[in-house]
Design brief:
Lambda_DNA-bd_dom_sf, elongated, two-stranded antiparallel sheet, XRE family transcriptional regulator, Cro/C1-type_HTH, single chain, DNA binding
């Protein structure tokens, strides 16, 4: 997932008086360093489970601060794979 609203994340942390360490623990991380990188804008992406935990902990909808990104440029929704013809002996 990608963090799309860093300002909202920071404002919500301030409003609820949640520290980076506390939110990192809620995300399931042992260290708060990646949380710091997200907050400062050094990092933008994270796995789905921590993103869900962060949103839940801050009482936000996931799509308020995160968006799902597909890694593969080849992935196309609704586009079928081309069919190959198989030659048969007559």
């Amino acid at each position: 997932m990608e963090l799309i609203n860093r300002d909202k994340l920071i404002r919500r942390m301030d409003k609820l008086n949640v520290s980076q360490r506390e939110l990192a623990r809620a995300a399931g991380w042992k260290s708060h360093s990646y949380m710091r990188r997200l907050i400062t804008g050094e990092a933008k992406t994270l796995n789905t489970d921590p993103a869900l935990r962060i949103a839940h902990y801050l009482h936000l909808d996931v799509d308020d601060i995160f968006v799902t990104r597909v890694d593969s440029p080849r992935a196309r929704v609704g586009t079928p794979e081309p069919q190959r013809r198989v030659k048969t002996a007559a």
